[in-house]
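Troubleshooting entry. The earlier prediction with KG4 gave an output that would not parse, so I re-checked the input for stray whitespace and re-submitted. Clean input:
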Amino acid sequence: MIVLGIETSCDETAVSVSKNYKILHSEVSTQTIHRKFGGVVPEIASREHEKLLNDMVDYTLNKIKISRLEIEGIAVTQGPGLAGTLITGVCFAKGLAQGLNCKIIGVNHLEAHIFANFLADPKLEYPFVCLLVSGGHTQIWFVEGLNNYKLMGETRDDAAGEAFDKGARILGLGYPGGPEIEKLSKTGDEKSISFPRALMKNKNLEFSFSGLKTSLLYYVDNQKSILKSDVAASYQAAIIDALITKLKWAMDKTNCKSCVIAGGVASNQVLRKYVKQTMKNKKVIFPEISLCTDNAAMIAYLGELYLQKGISSKIDFPVLPNMKLI
Ligand code: KG4
Ligand code: ZN
């Protein structure tokens, strides 16, 4: 089955085609226009998606020599995300689906992040534990099958990606903050400052990063001079320490053989290294970087899984900016 995937939940415009669960092409355009504002401006993001989508679909289809008429289904991000950017993608997808008279399915962006791990390893078996770490979410899922998920823990306040972004802002670095902090950390000493790790008792699987952010703010305000690389490395270590500790507790609790990580923060090399080290006797999977950050390959793939099962959406389905996984 040939499925066109469309992703516009935030500031990445992305188009991809999946055919029989293989990604034929994945095109991502990251909107750099937001950098000067230090964060995503929703209205600008929606307009950028609108400008780009049609040409990106043509480009993608030309590249893999598939005509629009061969598309059998369209998968589009329904939520969670920014209302305006979701509407742009969903309206575009609906118009195309009606014009082509093909099926359409609204896909949950978080679920798609989890399923990107099947693109990394098609032999991945259920059940597995997924640490989902993106700009808006930090959750641990026990995944027993398609549409069979149990939430084991999540953040009480900021998401891990948000902690990276806010920390970078405090340190005067660019947006998005994760890659900036990771880059600067390479030359820093992660043990130089002891930042707090929250909720680290009694195998608690919840996260909290807002205290860490405040502690960084106080630290920066109170020091006469700081070595930014040391601060960045210590701050990153505090986030990653919490993520790894809780992932390990979740693995112990479920006695699962496999764990996967998903979402933009999963592209962090230090996190990847420590997950591997900590879970030595387990199967550990993480998608390649381009499949961790927002992309449409994961949307096309998950859409194809549902469409092949005969599950699709009605043409009048709404966008759900706060869409939950369960
Ligand atoms: O999944 P994603 O691309 O978008 C959302 O669905 O939110 O995640 C974006 C988040 C941002 O907060 C960004 O700072 C973070 O992922 N991120 C990273 C890295 N690359 C992206 N965080 C830490 N290290 C990275 N290398
Ligand atoms: Zn995402």
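This one parsed fine. The chain has two domains: 2-113+292-308, 128-255.
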